[in-house]
User: Which sequence fits this backbone?
């Protein structure tokens, strides 16, 4: 892959991949590290993909797997960030940050599926393929996520 | 706030990497160059050669009957799917009857293709932890989920079951994988493996798992009847007296048709039982690989670990831990030069008595 092509893809998808990592890991600096690893893989492995959408799907798959690895590592468990980190300082107590903090209270598996469905607007089938889980698993996580998110939002009075 | 789309769009609208694009990009490009230089072709060839030698060494060790071979045999048996051998090999272990739990008033939610709930109903179900084999830093669990028969009958057989389980010990989560091993009548059995860090010792810890399951058509674009059976259960892991191996030497040879066979030793160890069977030299019988199996009630079929010195060493788990540790069962022999033999064996705590029975 040429440096120019890589730069184009990096600028196109960096934020998306970062957000997926952030959604999964909750820790902004950890999300940045994983995002960098994902793009490093794209550059060094240069998978043959015919469209930008395919590149994006590949990046998401790699990112989700990389986050899983981080999540399972002892290092991450020992340094798991407190929830407030993601929402910024008290001065950043905007509705956006409060919502983000609420979302991170969902289980990682659930919030990743919900993010991909509601933010990235992938279908249940596409999420199933991207995450390597069954469609029923995706539906179940969405269902549980909706219930939990609704309860959390009501509790926070948003 | 009207929709979940809106919530997510809003929540992530400000989430941006803090490092500027050009700096992050430069970092990646620099790292890619370093990576390329670090592994020249010559070094890669040396690494590959070393890997081949290592694999060869492990293979040779396994072939020589080193314990690794047994460990692999056992691992593969545990991980193989859908065979009776697999089920019996993991079903035996249990941590105690009190862990069987029954939950009622299961919530059933029918959802449409967009996932919106269209119906809720309540049904009865039973969730049992049927077996658990706890090792130093891993746990194999067997769950049975039985659902109300009448309710189940309304679903086509095409419906598939799926379950998700999360598992943690003292706040450390495990990587856990579940495999559906059988779905019969109104019951689903799930085999799950949870592995923890190498440093984790499960003994004395509490295993906490959260169980969720659902059933649905995978083919119809997301229409799912999902069963809310989410439960969190805490299981204390206490190897207790089983933590240390106990080997019981037997001195009662079983008399077989044309020779004697000796159950040489039985080792009790954390929900499993290793036993060695040896044919006495005076019998003139030669022990053919896998020709001998000890089959005890409450004990799974033994998994062959190795055969040497005319003996067979097997490992099986116990189906239940009873207070008196008494087991009974049969010894099956299919030696080429002898008729099939069946006898019985009773194991009582540290005293082993063999009943030759009628054969």
Assistant:
């Amino acid at each position: 892959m040429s440096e120019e092509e890589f730069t184009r893809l990096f600028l196109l998808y960096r934020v998306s991949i970062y957000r997926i990592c952030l959604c999964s890991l909750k820790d902004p600096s950890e999300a940045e590290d994983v995002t960098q690893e994902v793009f490093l893989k794209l550059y060094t492995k240069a998978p043959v993909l015919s469209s930008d959408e395919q590149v994006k799907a590949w990046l998401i798959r790699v990112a989700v797997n990389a986050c899983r690895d981080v999540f399972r590592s002892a290092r991450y468990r020992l340094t798991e960030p407190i929830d407030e980190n993601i929402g910024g300082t008290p001065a950043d107590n905007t509705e956006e940050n409060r919502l983000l903090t609420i979302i991170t209270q969902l289980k990682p598996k659930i919030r990743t599926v919900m993010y991909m469905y509601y933010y990235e607007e992938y279908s249940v089938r596409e999420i199933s393929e991207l995450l390597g889980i069954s469609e029923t698993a995706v539906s179940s996580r969405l269902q549980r996520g909706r219930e939990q998110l609704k309860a959390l939002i009501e509790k926070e009075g948003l | 706030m009207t929709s979940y789309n809106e919530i997510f769009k809003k929540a992530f609208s400000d989430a941006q990497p803090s490092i500027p694009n050009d700096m992050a990009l430069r970092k990646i490009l620099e790292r890619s160059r370093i990576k390329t230089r670090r592994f020249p072709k010559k070094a890669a060839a040396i690494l590959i050669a070393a890997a081949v030698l290592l694999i060869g060494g492990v293979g040779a060790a396994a072939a020589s009957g080193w314990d690794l071979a047994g460990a692999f045999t056992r691992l593969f048996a545990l991980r193989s799917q859908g065979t009776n051998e697999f089920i019996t090999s993991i079903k035996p272990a249990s941590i105690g009857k009190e862990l069987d739990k029954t939950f009622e008033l299961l919530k059933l939610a029918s959802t449409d293709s967009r996932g919106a709930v269209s119906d809720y109903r309540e049904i009865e179900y039973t969730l049992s932890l049927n077996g658990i084999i706890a090792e130093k830093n891993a746990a194999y669990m067997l769950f049975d989920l039985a659902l109300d028969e009448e309710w189940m009958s309304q679903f086509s057989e095409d419906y598939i079951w799926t379950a998700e389980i999360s598992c943690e010990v003292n706040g450390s989560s495990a990587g856990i994988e579940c495999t559906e091993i059988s779905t019969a009548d109104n019951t689903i059995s799930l085999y799950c493996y949870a592995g923890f860090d190498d440093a984790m010792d499960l003994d004395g810890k509490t295993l906490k798992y959260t169980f969720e399951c659902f059933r649905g058509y995978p083919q119809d674009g997301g229409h799912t009847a999902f069963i809310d059976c989410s439960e969190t259960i805490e299981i204390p892991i206490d190897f207790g007296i089983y933590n240390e191996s106990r080997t019981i030497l037997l001195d009662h040879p079983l008399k077989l048709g044309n020779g004697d066979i000796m159950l040489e030793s039985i080792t009790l160890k954390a929900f499993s039982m290793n036993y060695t069977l040896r044919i006495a030299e005076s019998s003139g019988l030669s022990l053919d690989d896998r020709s001998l199996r000890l089959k005890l009630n409450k004990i799974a079929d033994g998994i062959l670990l190795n055969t040497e010195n005319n003996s067979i060493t097997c490992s099986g788990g116990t189906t239940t831990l009873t207070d008196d540790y008494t087991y009974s069962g049969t010894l099956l022999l299919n030696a080429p030069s002898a008729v099939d033999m069946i006898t019985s064996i009773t194991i009582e705590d540290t005293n082993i008595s063999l009943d030759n029975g009628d054969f």
Observations:
- The CA atoms of residues 281 and 310 of chain B lie 8 Å apart.
